């Protein structure tokens, strides 16, 4: 499944950091996290982890990405 709803998003996380993403309901934060984790493929752009392109690669080849929703 593609994630076309996300436009112009970028985040940098350094080793040892934990981040959270918040926003109004329906603003795409879960889609963003799912695309970073590999559960969704971005419709455009790239997903870079440690400088390596993981765009379109399944979640099982990525390490250290967790997606929780409350």
The largest β sheet comes out as: 2 strands, parallel
Bulk shape:
globular
Structure summary, number of beta strands? 4
* H/E series: EHEEE
Poorly predicted ranges: none
Helix content: 10-25%
| Biggest sheet strand line-up | 1-2
Enumerate how many helices there are, as a single number: 1
Mean pLDDT: 77
Radius of gyration: 12 Å
Secondary-structure content class: little secondary structure
**How far is it from the N-terminal to the C-terminal residue, by CA?**
22 Å
Approximately what portion of the residues adopt beta-strand conformation? 5-15%
How is this structure best summarized?
This protein is 13% helix and 11% strand.
Distinctive features:
70 residues, little secondary structure, 1 helix, globular
Q: Describe it for me?
A:
This protein is low in regular secondary structure and 70 residues long. Helices cover 13% and strands 11% of the residues. The protein is built from 1 helix and 4 strands. The protein has a two-stranded parallel sheet with strand order 1-2. The chain has a two-stranded antiparallel ribbon with strand order 3-4. It is globular, with a radius of gyration of 12 Å. It starts with a strand and ends in a 17-residue tail after the last strand.
